[in-house]
Amino acid sequence: MHRDIFVDDRVAARAATAPEADALVSMRAIQKSYDGRSLIVANLDLDIRRGEFLTLLGPSGSGKTTCLMMLAGFETPTSGEIRLAGKIINRLPPHKRDIGMVFQNYALFPHMTVLENMRFPLTVRKLPRAGIDAKVKRALDMVQLAGFEHRYPQQLSGGQQQRVALARALVFDPQLVLMDEPLGALDKQLREHMQLEIKHIHQSLGATFVFVTHDQSEALTMSDRIAVFDRGVIQQIDTPANLYENPANAFVASFIGENNALAGTVLGRDGELSSVRLSTGACVLARTGDAGGAGQPAIVSIRPERVRLARDATPLAWRVPARVTEQIYLGDHIRLRMTVADCDNFTMKTPISKLDRCPCAGEQIELELAPEHLLALAPNPAP
Length: 383
Prior knowledge:
Elements: H1 9-15, E1 23-33, E2 39-49, E3 53-57, H2 64-72, E4 79-84, E5 87-88, E6 99-102, H3 114-123, H4 129-142, H5 158-170, E7 176-180, H6 188-205, E8 208-213, H7 216-222, E9 225-230, E10 233-238, H8 240-245, H9 250-255, E11 260-270, E12 273-278, E13 283-288, E14 297-302, E15 308-309, E16 319-329, E17 333-340, E18 343-351, E19 364-368, E20 375-377
Helix pairs in contact: 3-4, 3-5, 4-5
């Protein structure tokens, strides 16, 4: 990806725009390039609200970690302005930003005990000894590690090391806590447990958390809002429910949760609905997302759990033929893989209790695709 980098008076004008009243962090017209041509982050505007849990989500190389590192002070923007509590911090070194940081590898000092690791950020801030001990005790109690003070990191499990790293980031009461994929090294069960632990700690403290991950289920579980990154640009920032139910474009629809996508052409619009002709010639009605007008290509998006087997009462306009290719039994629900129009991997997911009879592989069936569950989107642009 190559884009020209520009710096002009518009940057200052946008930076002067008043952010949301409750914003702790304001990033305005942020660009980051390492070679002067390719933008890792492109024209980023972002407000982070006080007390919220914001997740930066996206695939590898999308710019989310670079954004976090600029906020932490480990990277400097090529252009633009970062404000923390109203103060410009572009050139402020990390240790002067009053920001707690948790890394994926925990970054604990191996030659220090838990107690010494915890004391370190308070000692460098020259707090009195009595105050240090009280803060360390409170932080260790918060992560349920009281009694582990004299162990070294190598004497702790991965989950315990992660808790120490989190406690160390919180021990000096920072106004902002940044986390760079801190759960990536944990196994699935512990990872899911720690997701809820971190969420509960955030709720009890009321501090502002910014969390980076490429795991969309993690983001949906933990966040108040999610900013979805792709190719250096925020594609959508919203609550987990709105991102899932109302994705702004085809990238967000495919990246957040499971999604079925049928290619077609827009025939026309009627209010909030678009009529789309699929490759087989069948037509469907869908809510209009960012799809273009008549004659433009479109992607019709629907979540697997919104797909239903057609019934006698299903309107003809909602019926789409399908051929079952695979039946997958998952205990509480069944997944059917099917061929629908030009999509060979169309998926339906339904609870077993909702099925009178489960179609078999090779069977020809009809699906109910209700317009309120379909979304007409513009195809992803070419890289």
